[in-house]
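As a warm-up, study this chain.
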Amino acid sequence: MTSFAGSGHPTSCLSAADLVAAIFFHAMRYDPKDPKNPDNDRFILSKGHASPLLYAVYKELGILSEKDLLGYRSINSVLEGHPTRRFPYTEAATGALGIGLSVGTGIALTAKMDNRNFKTYVLVGDGEVAEGAIWEAAELATHYNLNNLIGVLDCNRLGQSTESINDHHVHRYEEKFKAFGWKTYTLDGHNMQRIVDVLDEAAKSEHHPVMLIAKTIKGYGVVRVEDKEGFHGKAFPKEELNEILQQLAVRFSKAESYKEKTIWHPVLPTKTATAKVANTTATSGKQNRTIQIPDPHYKKGDTIATREAFGKALAALGRIAPEVVALDADVKNSTYTEIFEADFPLRFFECYIAEQNMIGVAVGFESRGKIPFAATFGAFMSRAHDQIRMAAISQSALRLVGSHAGVSIGQDGPSQMALEDIALMRCLPESVVLYPCDGVSAHKLVGEMVNYTQGISYLRTTRGKTSVIYDVNEEFPIGGCKVLKESDKDIACLVTAGITVFEALKAHEQLQQEGISVAVIDLYSIKPLDRESLLRLGKKSGSTIITIEDHYPEGGLGEAVAHALSDERLHVHIMAVTKLPRSGKPEELLALVGIDAAAIVKKVKSL
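Now compare it with the structure written out below.
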């Protein structure tokens, strides 16, 4: 595959080929012709650069042809350089290292929830074990007693540019995983009998996740590159193929070809006494129904923080949708996921202060048909952006909620203020970015998120309480907006979202008292946005739009509006946070950074 493609990682495949052969053709129970069967064992290729291994398996199983394999890495092939869900037998996109064990943890948790006894196998590279997310996953897997999770660590010693951190000292990896509560085995990763025997033992674990730590040789089978640096990510020239294949035929003369046979053994689900999670209806695959959230019970004039409205809406969803699960990163009393936990404790997963792992676990849940909502402070979503972008590549329908957005959180100061999150979420393919201003819109947008399955949806919530300004029968479709103020005398259009909606309404009132009229739009859907409404209001408001946002200007609401209207003859003025904020009262900070009502009035008058 790699030689025909002219690129790839053959030496990384050769080190793990024995391990993968034993996993698929001895240990795993699955129906290769029914990948969505909920009783299938699952496999995650965390070291995604070894993707030819995965594709070779499905060639042996008769799913792929040799012609398919020779299209590897080509533009029209689903066999990509690092696996994605375009190849339907892939559980999740991998390739950014350190992600697979988290995904496997989520899938193993799903098995516990659904009272299924399938195993989840994760092939991990020794280089990626330097990633902190691996250890976040390792600790959480022990916490939830995931004896159905089996990791296989390919210790081939060599990374891309140097030796891996522990070289061939497999006992160091063993000590680490033991310290995290895993049952461990060390083995020669090229001794097939030993691999098979250990896999059999691993499947019998009663209380602990298992890690097989296999000492392997990078480039195993091709003598001139075995255990040598400088060959990572380098395909062998086509003219060397015959010689190499002959070498492999001699080295593995006793290897058996796969014969058509039943390797999937259906078994009755059994309860696992050590699990700390619940049993719910088994599901697999994408969400296939529309879920209708009930209306909230708010009245105009009520005050509630949008973060709390989210928590109540999530609990309302939980009552009608058993597929919904909630994940939090030790801030459940701030994000208000604790409301969901109180009602559905066995569908709530505390991931602790480990946001990268939380996102990977959510991907695992989603891959098995759950509807995950993952919440933390919006500022801390940035820690997990690699996992979030990989989830986007997987086209995982994650529902992410970031609270404590903007300077309006107040005294906690800049380390807690999400001021980059809109940009981080807007840049993802197929993503949706929502920013409600009151309890009703927050509730209804949670109802929109639950039915969005094309990619990641992000809800930005505010710390402080705000007034309810919408009737409960209002609808908030993704891609829409609300025109709050409009007249035939408007000289500008104020476009806002979230907390600055209320500053814009105050500014509107002050300007009205001085005989100046402006329109006001609540752009609750920042991506996608309602271009037609912006264009219509902008043109009739002196061709002037002023955006106001509690976010840095780069990548925020203002740039989204300016981009959408870039081919129109409109003047777009962006008011955003342009200086490093500090601790202070919310109203002081809004004034300090120039996005409060007084600043808006001043801006309108200056134009």
